[in-house]
Amino acid sequence: MYVKLNDMEFGKKLESPIVAFTENGNELFIYDFDSAVEEAASVLYELGINRTSILIQKLLTAIEIEDYMEKIREFDPRIEEVEFSQEERKLKISPEEITLPINSKSAGYLGHISIKGPINIEIALQLIASINSITSIIEGSILEKRSYEMLKSSLETLSKAMESRVREADKLKDYKYKLFSTLIDKFDVEREIAELAFYVYDVGLIGVRDYILQKDLSDLTKKEWEEYRNHPKYGYEILKNIQDLPKEVLDATLYHHERLDGSGYPFGLESNEVPYIALLIGFVDEVARKLVEGKEKSELYCQLKGKFPDEFIRKLKEVPIDA
């Protein structure tokens, strides 16, 4: 790496750099990214302007990918925007933007960070010198996000397979998702996990024979009803061996028809025996079905009382719920 900064020169200027950046008479030539990381730190120390520890301290207070990007933005007032993407990009430095590839020794290429704003050589050196520490700190969150997206994709595929067999009116399907999206942030659950549960909570209907699914529930024989009411068990069996599937998703699948008063199925659980996530998913499902059927709100609230927590009903009254 060759650096000319503040009338001081470091390294040798060679031909064919992978990055060549100049600004206001200063120069930065990079020939190998890995060696440039250590060399950038040395240059900053020599100049007495190494601020990488400040950036690392900021990053250690973050948890999510978006938080990490915000901490990088806060590092220097000249940085205007920071974004992470899993797309593959090479190191790039321009007056408007620096692109830093994120390579993990254990997991390989993870993505890149794009930092926008008036970029000068000092900012570029600070970020390059910090890249190994940045990678170590955010690697876990990136891999977790990647794992979540893969899991989400698998569950979406299962959900589509169910929908191809279990025909649900578009109005009901759309309204259920609308109601779920409106209510979910009002409850004490992780949105990402709740979304996974919402995709597949009824996947067990795949195990119910077609002719039963085509009948109105009120027209089912006793034997047919027994088969239908076991669909939460079928769903659990379908999902239980999926690697890294959160327990809450399994709970929502197995218990979403259970009710606080013991009137639900397939186990007739009562009160705090019913997992919170299962109650929430069951609540959205039942409210959506009743409203699409034309149930009056006042009558609906009465029917929900005792079956679901009063907190659920109270929060439902706070949002627009017309189907």
**How many discrete domains?**
2
Estimate the global geometry from the Cα principal axes: elongated
- The CATH topology of the largest domain is Hypothetical protein af1432
Major sheet details: 4 strands, antiparallel
Average pLDDT figure: 91
Number of helices: 13
Number of strands: 8
Distance between the termini: 63 Å
**The CATH class of the largest domain:** Mainly Alpha
Structural class based on helices, strands and sheet pairing: alpha+beta
Low-confidence stretches: none
Structure description:
The chain contains 13 helices and eight strands. By secondary structure, the chain is of the alpha+beta class. It has two domains: 142 residues, no CATH class; 151 residues, Hypothetical protein af1432, CATH 1.10.3210. The strands form two sheets. A four-stranded antiparallel sheet has the order 2-1-4-3. Helix 10 packs across helix 11. The chain is elongated. The termini are far apart. The mean pLDDT is 91.
Observed structural traits:
13% strand, four-stranded antiparallel beta sheet, Hypothetical protein af1432, elongated, 13 helices, alpha+beta
Question: How would you briefly describe this protein structure?
Answer:
The chain has helices at residues 33-47, 52-59, 65-75, 121-165, 170-183, 191-200, 210-213, 222-229, 231-239, 247-255, 276-292, 297-304, 310-316, and strands spanning 2-5, 8-10, 19-23, 26-30, 81-85, 92-93, 97-104, 108-116. The protein has 323 residues and is of the alpha+beta class. The termini are far apart.
